[in-house]
């Protein structure tokens, strides 16, 4: 058991795990469970970390390493690091205006930021606050063709270059903590209301002065009396299109002129279909272990998917990335970049923009160090020969 430092100063956190420790202390229990929890027994959640742990490294020695190269060209843009902030909904429950803080932290470091359909800040608010953001938008397929078209048109109007369609959450995973903590959608149980009172710093940072945030992107579609968090949660629950299939994705391919990625792929046969449809990329993801418990770790699925897809579309990976060496392993197995979910959420929860930036800097520092220790200072030269793995 590690002993982390006991203060509140997040800049002294040496790792993502230490940021998580601080976030857990800062947040009321219901918000912490929302951030950290997985589905059912959390087997997949645990497997995501174990998958990375099971991959060993094969270092070489006597290699000069005073300079490391971590750059990547992704979708025609040079990125200083092979990472982007992935989509997570309802971020302002962790820290007021968290989407904007995350977007600023990513933009300061030349990295893309992905806004969720169910974000708290809207597309327009993010772009107004961070005009230079490299903004990606995550779409949940909705039953109402008008609402979906309106979201796509808004994403285009604010200059989103890249659209991620999330396919693994058309029905919500079995998250018992969610049902336990809320007596009705977004209505806290009494036990949790008392716990909130025991976290005055969080109340000041997240709730004050407007109360529970609502979902910014959905406001135009909600009746006036339902523009609350509960109203938005009800709306999105009813709107999820459970008929989503490959034909719907083909129609979206025709409709969306920008880059289109499918998020939630774990099987090479699905990757083959995505290639045939002319998609630009995949996100190999199990939604951070929040959907199907028992699904494999994303990193375990990467080699087989890379074998069918590499060179034909870009490969991103998420779920369980907590160390620079995880990013190194994903890139060695064929990923172009990783998406960050909880890693940057821990940061934003403890320190807004600076906290999210600290999380990104920790990962960047660890990645450079791991490359130097491996004896391969250039990320672009990595392949599976640098790994000790049966994958
Ligand atoms: C998510 N994720 C997610 N994905 C998505 O496509 N739309 C969304 O709105 C959300 N919301 C969301 C909220 C929270 C609190 C979490 C933790 C995750 C999934 C996310 O994009 C990503 O796949 C996972 O977070 C990756 O796993 P790790 O790195 O967080 O373990």
- Which small-molecule ligands are present, each listed once? ligand FNR
* Structural domain tally: 1
H-E string? HHHEEEEHEHEHEHEEHHHHEHEHEHEHE
Q: Write down how many β-strands occur, each being a DSSP E stretch of 2 or more residues.
A: 14
Stated plainly, the CATH topology is called TIM Barrel
Biggest sheet: strand arrangement: 4-13-12-11-10-7-6-5
Which CATH top level class fits? Alpha Beta
Count every helix, treating DSSP H or I runs of 4 or more residues as helices.
15
Name the shape in a single word. Answer: globular
Looking at CATH, the homologous superfamily is Aldolase class I
What is the level-2 CATH architecture name?
Alpha-Beta Barrel
Per DSSP, what share of the residues sits in E-state strands of 2 or more residues?
5-15%
Unreliably modeled segments: none
Radius of gyration: 20 Å
Task: Summarize the biggest pleated sheet.
Answer: 8 strands, parallel
Nearest-integer average pLDDT = 95
Distance between the termini: 29 Å
The residue fraction in helices comes out at 40-55%
What does this structure look like?
This protein is an alpha/beta fold. The chain has a single domain, classed as TIM Barrel (Alpha-Beta Barrel), CATH 3.20.20. The chain is built from 15 helices and 14 strands. Strands 4-13-12-11-10-7-6-5 form an 8-stranded parallel β-sheet. A two-stranded antiparallel sheet has the order 1-14. Helix 6 links the parallel strand 6 and strand 7. Helix 1 runs antiparallel to helix 15 and helix 4 packs parallel to helix 15. The mean pLDDT is 95. The protein binds ligand FNR. The site of ligand FNR has 23 residues, from helix 2 and helix 15.
């Amino acid at each position: 058991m590690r002993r982390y430092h006991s203060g509140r100063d997040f800049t002294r956190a040496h790792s993502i795990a230490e940021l998580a420790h601080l976030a857990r202390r800062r947040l009321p229990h219901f918000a912490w469970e929302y951030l950290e929890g997985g589905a059912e027994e959390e087997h997949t959640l645990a497997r995501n970390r174990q998958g990375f742990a099971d991959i060993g490294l094969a270092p070489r020695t006597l290699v000069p390493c005073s300079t490391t190269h971590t750059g990547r060209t992704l979708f025609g843009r040079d990125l200083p690091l092979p990472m982007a902030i992935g989509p997570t909904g309802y971020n302002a429950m962790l820290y007021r205006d968290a989407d904007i803080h995350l977007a600023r932290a990513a933009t300061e470091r030349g990295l893309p930021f992905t806004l969720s359909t169910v974000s708290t800040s809207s597309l327009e608010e993010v772009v107004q606050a961070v005009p230079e953001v490299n903004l990606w938008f995550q779409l949940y397929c909705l039953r109402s063709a008008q609402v979906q078209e309106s979201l796509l048109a808004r994403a285009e109007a604010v200059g989103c270059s890249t659209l991620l369609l999330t396919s693994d959450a058309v029905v919500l995973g079995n998250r018992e903590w969610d049902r336990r903590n809320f007596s009705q959608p977004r209505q806290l149980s009494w036990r949790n209301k008392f716990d909130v009172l025991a976290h005055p710093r969080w109340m000041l940072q997240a709730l004050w002065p407007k109360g529970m945030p609502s979902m910014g992107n959905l406001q135009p579609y909600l009746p006036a009396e339902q523009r609350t968090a509960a109203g938005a949660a009800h709306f999105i629950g009813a709107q999820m299109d459970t008929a989503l299939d490959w034909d719907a994705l083909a129609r979206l391919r025709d409709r969306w002129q920008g880059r289109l990625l499918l998020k939630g792929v774990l099987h090479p046969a699905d990757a083959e279909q995505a290639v045939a449809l002319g998609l630009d990329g995949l996100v190999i993801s199990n939604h951070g272990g929040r959907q199907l418990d028992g699904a494999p770790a994303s990193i375990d699925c990467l080699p087989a998917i890379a074998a069918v897809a590499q060179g034909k579309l870009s490969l991103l990976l998420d779920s369980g990335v907590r160390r620079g060496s995880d990013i190194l392993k994903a890139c060695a197995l064929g990923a172009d970049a990783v998406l960050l979910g909880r890693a940057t959420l821990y940061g934003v929860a403890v320190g807004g923009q600076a906290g999210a930036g600290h999380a990104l800097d920790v990962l960047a520092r660890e990645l450079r160090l791991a490359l130097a220790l491996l004896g391969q200072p250039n990320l672009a030269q990595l392949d599976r020969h640098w790994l000790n793995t049966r994958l």
